[in-house]
Specification:
By secondary structure, the protein is α/β, with parallel strands linked by helices. The protein contains 13 helices and 12 strands. It has a 7-stranded mixed sheet, sandwiched between helices. Helix 2 (39-59) packs parallel to helix 7. Bound molecules: pyridoxal-5'-phosphate. Residues 72-74, 77, 102, 104, 149, 153, 178, 180-181, 201, 204, 212 line the site of pyridoxal-5'-phosphate.
Amino acid sequence: MKSIYMDHHATTPMDKEVLDAMMPYLTDNFGNPSSNTHEYGHIARRAVEEARKKMADFIGAKSADEIIFTSGATEADNLALKGIAYNQKEKKGQIITIQTEHKAILDTAKRLQREGYETAFAKIDEHGIVDLDHLRQLINPDTVLISIQAANSEIGTIQPVAEIGKIARDFNIPFHTDAVQALGRHDIHVERDNIDMLSISGHKIYGPKGIGALYVKKGIRLVSLIDGGGHERGMRSGTLNVPGIVGLGKAAEIAQRDMKTETERLLKLRNKLATGIESRIEQVKLNGHPTKRLPNNLNYSFAFVEGESLILACRGVALSSGSACTSASLQSSYVLKAINVPESLAHCSIRFGLGKCNTEEHIDYLLDLLEEKVKKLREMSPLYDLAREGIDIDKLNWTKHSH
Ligand SMILES: *Cc1c(COP(=O)(O)O)cnc(C)c1O
């Protein structure tokens, strides 16, 4: 039997309704939406446009044309940053972002920096929330884009997106947000929140992998990264991934339909897990904001227990310590580092990512497991005994290393 899945920030299982919606477009309705001389093309085109409308409606876009389909959010993030940067004619501009962004933003910004563009990082507090005053101070005449995520995939911190949008609008600077983790879990509305571009990923909202979108508000000009047949208003060429797009549209429709009930349900489960951990296990630290966080996210450091060891010990539940890439390299999380979690505690962290398939029974099972395994692993840690006895290890009369 497979373990209980609790890693919904990494990916989500595709909804059965999504698969059902996609199936005809993987079989009989195989037309190319760009073919306009026969019904095969027309059927595919109609399905794509319907999905585009559903996505536009979901995020509060004025017009369906403002949705550009991509291969995922990584591509959407690349298109947003490079598309704006490469559109600068006279000078290489400055992009403002934060240190806790997804690698799709950070690595793109890094590449642009190597090409002569500038990146500035707005300060964040110990919970990961952006400092709006500092953001304002960073803005200069060269600023061409502000890109700040809607919610973080490791610590679940929700940014004040509408306030950032207001600042960007006041200075007349485009505002992009990577909303991959927030969509379907937190209320986002591009018109209301003054968002000019927004990245979407199918597989984070119970849709298919390999499909995503970038919302691009009318009037925003981007240089395309993939040239060809001029699809997607010239911003992203390539024959459209019709089944993927249909699946993404269906996932958006379901997310919109179920958001209220599902987020309330998740919040209840999440709070049960948090209360259980904090009452049953001593010396744990919550990473991220206590309240401004995604309803499906928790991130705890269990002092004196190595996160990876605890994850392995809790084999019955599929958990991770953070982003898939950093856990592969056993490096501690750059997100936790950015919010000043000490290295030793960052190594003790586990991320809990709840989702649709999780139940109260799963939480009970996990709590028993965590309590037992943390106790067992701590018994193997001599430093834990010192701490329990109230001995401050920094104040011990340590031998000094001579250099
Ligand atoms: C998963 C994720 C991405 C990348 O999305 P893909 O569709 O897998 O390329 C980007 N940003 C955030 C915040 C994510 O969680």
